[in-house]
Amino acid sequence: MKQIRVKAYAKVNLGLDVLRRREDGYHEVRMIMQTVDLYDDLNISKTKDQKISITANLKFLPVDENNLIYKAAKLFLDACGISEGVTVDLKKHIPVAAGMAGGSSDAAAVLYSMNELFQTGLTLPRLMELGVKIGADVPYCLMQGTALAEGIGEKLTELPSMMECPVLVAKPGIHVSTAFVYGNLKLDNVLHPDIDAQIAAMKEKNLKKTADCMGNVLESVTIPKYPVVAKIKDCMIKNGALNAMMSGSGPTVFGLFEDEKTAKAAYQTLYDQGLAKWVYLTGIYNDRRR
Asked: What predicted TM-score, i.e. pTM, was given to this entire model?
């Protein structure tokens, strides 16, 4: 095998709670992660030299050691003692800096694919151990599907697969700093989502109850600074979403719908109002890596 093609899927947080700030500066979280059918395309090829080369379809993306793809490839080569290199061609479709783990998903796809490409035989848990060195979301992006994430996001428990439904995703043309959001989060005065109730609703396969339990404590910081996030949420709900929520630290908003027709009409309304720069109609993606 000399090259491999792989899809790196985006995620949303169906529920996101922050429990406390740890002494090391990280935040203890409890959140439900879900893969959606929106992805980047990566083509990874072996090279005889020890270089890591990246090309991308978006000119503003870094293609050096500042890219998580580069960090993942170097980490893998070093960990496995491989004296060859790789070239990675990235076709980016997941919005950048959107709270959808696009960079982490790319890194996870590189780790998973290089394990296949070089036939190193690392288990998924071992790949996840490597992945957390790159970022807290990388282990989940290696697993995919529906999962409860705890700790700083690296402690994962598989959950029953989320019910399939249309998902409307919208990102306004703004950048939200994750460091700013977590740095300004006040936990003593926020409404915490009921993660356990949401898990119970998912086990019942009750889409409406699952949507009713959606909540993200980080909205308490992002929305006051960027009111367009709330406007997108309101637009989705007024146009038939069972519920809508910001994913991660934002600014992307996603809405869950019961049927394709309603979701398509909401897509058109959102597009016409110009609240978001990028609008996608996608769905739940439940395949897990093993």
From this structure: 0.94
